[in-house]
Amino acid sequence: MKGKNKPTSVDIAHLAGVSQPTVSRALRNSPLVSLETRLRVQKIAQELNYKVDVNARNLRSQRTNTLALLLFEDKGEGERFINPFFLSMLGSITRATANRGYDLLVSFQQLSDDWNAEYEDANKADGIIFLGYGDYTTYIKRISELDRQGAHFVTWGPVIENQPGLFVGCNNEQGGQLGTQHLINNGHTKIAFLGDESKDYPEFRDRYRGYLNAHQESKVSVDESLRFNAFFSEESGYAATKELIKSNKEFTAISCASDLIAIGAIKALRENGLKVPNDIAIVGFDDIPTAEHLAPALTTIRQDTFAAGQALVDSVLMLVNDEKEVSSTLLETKLIIRDSCGTHNG
Amino acid sequence: MKGKNKPTSVDIAHLAGVSQPTVSRALRNSPLVSLETRLRVQKIAQELNYKVDVNARNLRSQRTNTLALLLFEDKGEGERFINPFFLSMLGSITRATANRGYDLLVSFQQLSDDWNAEYEDANKADGIIFLGYGDYTTYIKRISELDRQGAHFVTWGPVIENQPGLFVGCNNEQGGQLGTQHLINNGHTKIAFLGDESKDYPEFRDRYRGYLNAHQESKVSVDESLRFNAFFSEESGYAATKELIKSNKEFTAISCASDLIAIGAIKALRENGLKVPNDIAIVGFDDIPTAEHLAPALTTIRQDTFAAGQALVDSVLMLVNDEKEVSSTLLETKLIIRDSCGTHNG
DNA sequence: TTGTAAGCGTTATCAG
DNA sequence: CTGATAACGCTTACAA
User: Fold this and answer.
1) Distance of CA A86 to the CA centre of its chain
2) Which fold has domain B172-303?
3) Which of A221, B7, B104, B172 is the right S-S partner for B11, CB 3.0 to 4.6 Å?
4) pLDDT at position A76, please?
5) What's the CA gap between A287 and A281, in Å, rounded?
6) Residue A8 CA to C7 C1' — how many Å?
7) Which fold has domain A66-169+304-330?
8) Is the pLDDT score of B22 beyond 80?
9) Three-state DSSP class for residue A179
């Protein structure tokens, strides 16, 4: 047990010679309390190192001043390391939450778990932020349910018309286009794409659409057989690149659906004696912290995690505060040019 | 507001035709409740999607089932990005906490803030984990105070005899020795050290001691003027290396007190036409995720963040559960050999 | 095995 | 501006 037993508002009421609700009011700086008593109470509270018991407060007020961050991962990815992009997001969300005067409860979940808002139902948090990559149909089902229950939550993910729930995400299509356009501008026309294009991963699909758009705008024909499946991880990027090479198709550049994939791709290329950017140009997506330190430094599409964290927090808080007309947020991406995209003389 | 008003244990008691404490017991799987009523109650609870209100529970039981993680940063470091090493720690702590059935409250603090256990005083958490680098004398003062108050907390940091509080940390002296020894084994004798050696940063000081030990064991004389101050960041590593170069001292290798410093060092060397590892060998410390992707891949000292997170969580929980004889934990480090340390022919 | 009564430390409501 | 009183939803202690 603790050495000291903590003082309560009743103790302070005694010492200050006022009623206990008055103490409560004074500590919240209520203007209803006269300046004199307010100061007296606050002074005593400080001397005793009194802190409001949040459980009592929350119980009574039915508010927690806490947000929950649920990071879900697809099975298989649940290894020792967390996707660095989400780690960055976690950092910015933590900061944004603190700036708004809220506490943040962080938790990992498997996509398979029953992450059904236990946090809000149990009054642990006023609202929830969901973060993760995973099968879209699975999680949209979960989200619909939460939505029906009237939970306050926002999800990092694809911003799509008419889907249930509130989303914050970046413009993946624009980002995908930006990256591929850069490759085309550098003279490349045989550009492979590493990522998914199915409905199950709309973010990847949109990046692929951007890739397609860039080709179309520049009137470069697309060879769809240059798209290989890859999911998030370095390993999958590595494997996809091996396949690409084995296919014996001609290519001079690769557009990767994530930086992690790009890292795997570079490794596979190197193992096959192909140099980046001299032989093959590469663009990534995300701009994780490692990207700028890669050899060569990775040209990539930056998702602004700082703005994203802020938008996520502000969005849930609007929900929590019952503001109407809260709508999803689409963030723009930015091309970060570094050293991984050489020019090609067609 | 939420659409639904949440069911309470009283509601369930009504429906099940039992008293309300019985509901409470049944839901906790108390063997005191007959199997029959237990199942009946649980079924109803599930149908109503009932969740225990944690605030009420915590208030009554004076326990929160929650741990708080306070990440503190020295001023100046409070920029957009968090030290990646701590980000890794955060990941592993989150996992370890969840494994023990606790929730985790995450918060950033400036070292200057009054992080005086508000979390425990306010009954937000049963225990606290402190994480960060900062001026030792400042934080040891804070820690003494907490200790006197009987708070339950553990700090990631230097494990030193007779300091107040409970610590988990890695063996920095051993780690420092490991890295420098590796350089010496590779034929280097003029080895610079980038880091602090003052009491204010005992972890850095210990790494420097390890550097000294390695020299002594191999009977290589130390040139103390080859030590330059650097703190945590890439920028400081960059600046220190610039100074080192400007000093015109002879050196063939650098032992860095952190990977971030090493990254800055490599950058500075490159700008001065010095190649790693051909001209200069480098070892880092931490093994952050970026380390293996650097050019060249960084040889470094790994701190096992996985084990560290586990030890931190288990340590606080022992405190929380009033176990006696809880002692600090010293984790061993490991040399990870990659490509940044060339051999030198003396 | 179950029920009764009390209380955890606040904030809300109302009356003065 | 202040005070009395009730309530938030649960767990504990004790009685039956």
Assistant:
1) 5
2) Rossmann fold (3.40.50)
3) B7
4) 54
5) 16
6) 14
7) Rossmann fold (3.40.50)
8) yes
9) helix
